[in-house]
Amino acid sequence: MRRYLSTLTLLIGLAGAGAAHASLPGYELAGVLTGAIGIGATEVYKKDIVPDEPRWKTPPALDASVRDGLKWSNTKTAATLSDIMLFGIMPTAAFLSPLATNHNYGRAALTISEAAVATGVITQIAKFSFARARPYAYYGNDYSNPDSKLSFFSGHSSYSFALSVSSAMLLAESYPRYSTAIYSIAILLAAFPAYLRIAADKHYFTDVLTGAIIGSTIAYGVVRMQITANSTQYGDERRLQLQKVFVLQ
Q1: What pLDDT shows up at residue 1?
Q2: Domain coordinates of the chain in residue numbers?
Q3: C-alpha to C-alpha distance for 158 and 180, rounded to whole angstroms
Q4: Residue-level pLDDT at 25
Q5: CB contact at 8 A, 189 and 164
Q6: Which of 147, 177, 167 is nearest to 242 (CA)?
Q7: Going by C-beta distance under 8 Å and a sequence separation of 6 or more, which residues neighbour residue 227?
Q8: DSSP symbols for the chain
Q9: Is the Cα torsion angle 133, 142, 67, 208 positive or negative in sign?
């Protein structure tokens, strides 16, 4: 829980600093703050929200098969590596990447924060609604830990793809000639912590796949909306046309 809260604090801090520096709309920052507080509250009161028994226990054959093939013998190492990726490498790379673009840093940081927090809100709603047993809990028949019933879908995957896709879109808009390479690297980077969650026996394949799709979709929608709105607002028609060709199609 502390790791999640520290990451949310980072998102809020960067968004707030960016907004103050760039005089960005206060309602956007308020939205990030509200979403982050909501996510933090679900973590703090997790044991009071999670049901006593998982609502979804038995995995489909596909999930069981993938688990058998990808689970590491040392699951703790895989879990630690996945945490390092999500709480260290992913946000660092995401929030440094706008420095290499032609975007205002504050605007870009706030946009990435919006994508991450919106993804987090949807992720938490899904986790507590489905209350799916994690692999280690199902096969070990131990649901004593509230977190053991929050498998669907993977937050590590959804956050990683939200951060990667949102920052990649901003980079690709600035360097359209290299957009294929940018997106390829971003997807590979986000896929690694998703894989590690299966290796750590924390999630099934369908958990990480769904997380990847949700995180990518939300990031795409948020960044597309912000790029279009801000390009129109500032009257940069040439940039808007480039965005339509290289990013928005």
Answers
A1: 53
A2: 2-246
A3: 21
A4: 76
A5: yes
A6: 177
A7: 169, 170, 173, 243, 247, 248
A8: -HHHHHHHHHHHHHHHHHHHHHT--HHHHHHHHHHHHHHHHHHHTHHHHS-SS-SB-SPPHHHHHHHHHH--S-HHHHHHHHHHIIIIIHHHHHHHGGGGSSS-HHHHHHHHHHHHHHHHHHHHHHHHHH-BPPHHHHHHT---SGGGG--SS-HHHHHHHHHHHHHHHHHHHH-GGGHHHHHHHHHHHHHHHHHHHHHTTS--HHHHHHHHHHHHHHHHHHHHHHHHHHHHHTT-HHHHHHHHHHT--
A9: positive
Tokens 């070990």 appear where?
A: 140
Class of the CATH domain delimited by 2-246: mainly alpha
* Chain centre to alpha carbon of residue 11: 12
Q: Do residues 91 and 10 lie in contact, with contact meaning Cβ atoms separated by under 8 Å?
A: yes
What are the 10-residue block averages of pLDDT along the chain, 249 residues in total? Answer: 52 50 74 92 94 96 98 98 96 95 89 96 97 98 96 98 97 94 97 98 98 98 88 45 47
Please report the pLDDT score of residue 249 as a whole number.
45
Check residue 103 and give its pLDDT. 86
Tell me, what's the pLDDT at 248?
45
Buried b (16+ CB within 10 A) or exposed e, 75-110: beebbebbeebbbebbbebbbebbeebebbbbbbbb
